[in-house]
Amino acid sequence: MIPGVGGLRYVLLPLLLGGCAALEFSPNQTWVPPAERNLTAQNLTRLYQTPPPAPADTLRFVFIGDSQRFYDEAEAFVRSVNQQRGIHFVLLAGDLTDFGLPREMRWLHHRLRHLRVPYLTVIGNHDQVANGRLNYQRIYGPLNYSFEYGGTRFVLLDTNSREYGFPGTVPNVAWLRARLADTAGTRRQVVVCHVPPTDSDFDPRLVLPYAAALRASPRVVLHLAGHVHRFSAQQPFQDGLSYLTGYSFGKRRYQIVSLWGRQRQFHLETVTYADVR
Amino acid sequence: MRTCAKPGLWGLCACLAAGPAIAQPSGQGPFLTVQVGGGLGLVAVGGGWWGGRQRLEPELLVGYVPRALGSRPLFIFTAKATYVAPRPRLELGERAWVQPLAVGGFVNYTAGRAFFVRSVRTGRYPQGYYWWSSAVRLGACASLRVVRVREPGQGFRQVLYSEWSTNDLYAISRASNCRLRLTEIVVWGAGAKAGL
Hints:
The complex is a heterodimer. By secondary structure, chain A is an alpha/beta fold. Chain A is 26% helix and 20% strand. The longest helix of chain A is centred in the N-terminal third of the chain and has 13 residues. Chain A starts with 7 loop residues before the first helix and ends in a 5-residue tail after the last strand. Chain B is elongated, with a radius of gyration of 19 Å. In chain B, 40% of the residues are buried. Chain B: Keywords: Signal.
């Protein structure tokens, strides 16, 4: 405050108060409000508060990838998913952001938090640009994690090998193998990542060990990935395991995946949602 | 004041160190800046030159974001230019006034191995893999300021400002998303300037 100009306080005070919420030190800062940290843990807590389906019942979840710079579509996506019945959660297969900025993650969360079911994510390559990896860890949580729900273990891992310069350690195949080997309390397993092993951004030295780890786990029902912005379903390793890629938000489509039984049984339903009004 | 006839940042520092008695607040000359926020750092310090009949303020700033806020220390180097509209002007006294309209632009560079000017130069990506620079940001800003001048020889011209800004990546995000609110892409900062 400039001394001797008392009236200034009436000008500056509202500006200061109004501005503090928008205070930003850098687009790459990793500081976010505490309520917007550890969203993976928050969403898992929310998921576990919902009774899982009985063992004989079907587990249903929404699968989509690459929300990136599609915020208008995210709002339409939320409206559409909220109209679905019997959905347990949403799986978002990476590339939450375009530029790896925390504000982008917050823009997305400010829309997806209106989902009636929790959403769970895995990190994508765009999410690792600049300070992105640190942002993801602070805002969402671990890069590799797993959770169990409805007798199913979901294993989510970072497969964005190119972002690390193909060091031979991403994805962490040993960690994946260990998570898949632990079958206690699970009837089936689903592996989720961003870059599929058939893509050139996946470390070529790890493709076969990765596929072998999945092949050695008979309870793996599906492999889900994003990155390519379109739906595909194939068995690239001719081992009976289906590798799916999901639509991006820009396609205004998503899949509802249903799992049941002990075998590799699943059902896919494509939902097209309307344009933003 | 003759010692500041060819002032620069060091000249201003010398004048400031010598005390206000030798300064002549003319509105033309060097100034020092301290800014908080606005995407330029937790604190950014630097200086520039009041020119163009007190309407133009080119300046250079160095900003710092500590590890606690950035997960790693960030250093941000900014070149910024502000145009201050002489009117409207709200008088607050004989030597103080509010200028509600100042607009400007900036370009800055965030140092560090995590940030690239061109993605291909990291050696990790093929040509054009990421089209933008994660190290260089362009921005636009608008500010409101309070100006106080002193009697000749009595002290420095002082400016306090409250600034709202955005950057190229936020603006691009807004351009393709009409439901992304302006309040979501605007950031705030505030600062002070003092000079001759």
